[in-house]
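User: tokens in, sequence out, please.
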């Protein structure tokens, strides 16, 4: 049991030190992803406490947050300089794709609301 806790602490320390060298723009994208997923959690807790009378609104909120988080993760992958798959893609193009896909996502969500 003691070695498991020590291993977990060593893992957290290693992750923290590796994340410290991450670029600020990637940390901002990570913060946006965490915010989107926290919003999903708040919506699920609210739905479980109050009820889900307008179920389309609940589903729209959940899908909007999850879709935004997925698109932000895609943006992070494209903007990250260490990722060699997208080395020829300029960051401006990646951000334009992110904005356009978010626009399409939220138009679909608004259509789903009715």
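Assistant: Sequence out:
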């Amino acid at each position: 049991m003691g070695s498991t806790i020590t291993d977990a602490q060593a893992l957290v320390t290693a992750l923290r030190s590796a994340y410290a060298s991450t670029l600020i723009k990637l940390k901002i994208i990570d913060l946006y992803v965490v915010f989107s997923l926290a919003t999903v959690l708040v919506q699920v807790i609210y739905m479980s406490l109050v009820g889900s009378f307008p179920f389309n609104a609940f589903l729209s909120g959940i899908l909007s947050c999850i879709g935004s988080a997925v698109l932000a993760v895609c943006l992070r992958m494209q903007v990250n300089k260490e990722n060699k798959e997208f080395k020829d893609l300029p960051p401006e193009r990646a951000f334009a794709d992110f904005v356009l896909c978010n626009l399409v996502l939220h138009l679909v969500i608004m259509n789903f609301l009715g």
